[in-house]
Amino acid sequence: MRILVTNDDGFDAPGLAALRDVAGEFGEVFTLAPATQQSYVGHRVSTATPLRLTTLGPLQFHLAGTPADCVRVALRGLGEPFDWVFSGINHGGNLGADVYTSGTVAAAREAALLGVPAIAISQFHRRPHPDDWEMSAALARRAIARIISETVPQTLYWNVNLPHPVADPAAVELCECSLDPGALDVAFAREGDEFLYAGRYMDRSCAPGFDVAQCFSGAITLTRFI
């Protein structure tokens, strides 16, 4: 297989390195990721400004653009053929309503819109536990193997979230995205005319059986979108 790997944390992010290593176990890896941090940019794309591509090594590039831009340039600008697009491993969860603001998920969605199946993978982070990218890679490997073993339509993408603290073995749960009212803890600290977001990720609603509750309880969650 030929696999495009991208992310929204930027080319130098440890999660991208972990996913690139895992992807290499499934096929040939072509990396094209944002040159800088692009978290929470959602599905923003660039149409009025040029996008500078920089070659960093064999089949490794970064782009002065968003995650969705990276996918567009790889698939349409460079015209490279891919069997899959993998996006991540994001530092932080992309559960429930996060799918609307996540650059990680947007990259996978853009791939599906352009006819290539894709997987977005995110590592939920529960403070104060430390990151363990080796274990994240191990869980991501299991999720990818489960997904690519199935026959899927080209216009399909998956959103995968890994639990934290990371423990292996962990259950792999196919579940729906939680989009119930009040899904996010939206709060602000105000100083004069300035507002600083103060919501807590863990203080979101957790409808039983949906992705948020399942990941918070220790499962690898797989959510399918078409």
Outline of this structure?
With 226 residues, this protein is of the alpha/beta class. 24% of the residues lie in helices and 26% in strands.
Question: What is the second-level CATH architecture?
Answer: 3-Layer(aba) Sandwich
How is the largest sheet built, in terms of strand order? 3-4-2-1-5-6-7-11-8
User: CATH homologous superfamily, by name?
Assistant: Survival protein SurE-like phosphatase/nucleotidase
Helix content: 10-25%
Distance between the termini: 22 Å
Order of helices and strands: EHEEEHEHEHEEEEHE
Instruction: Report on the biggest sheet.
Output: 9 strands, mixed
Number of H- or I-type helical stretches: 5
What's the total number of strands?
Answer: 11
Structural class: alpha/beta
**What would you report as the Rg, rounded to the nearest angstrom?**
17 Å
Overall mean pLDDT? 93
Percent of residues in β-strands: 25-35%
The poorly predicted ranges are none
Question: Can you characterise this structure?
Answer:
With 226 residues, this protein is α/β, with parallel strands linked by helices. The chain has a single domain, classed as Stationary-phase Survival Protein Sure Homolog, Chain: A (3-Layer(aba) Sandwich). 24% of the residues lie in helices and 26% in strands. The chain contains five helices and eleven strands. It has helices at residues 14-23, 67-77, 103-113, 133-148, 211-216, and strands at 2-6, 28-34, 53-57, 60-63, 84-91, 118-123, 157-162, 172-174, 188-191, 194-197, 220-225. It has a nine-stranded mixed beta sheet. A two-stranded antiparallel sheet has the order 9-10. Strand 9 and strand 10 form a beta hairpin. The longest helix is centred in the middle third of the chain and has 16 residues, at 133-148. The chain is globular and about 45 Å long. The protein starts with a strand and ends with a strand. The model has no long low-confidence stretch (mean pLDDT 93).
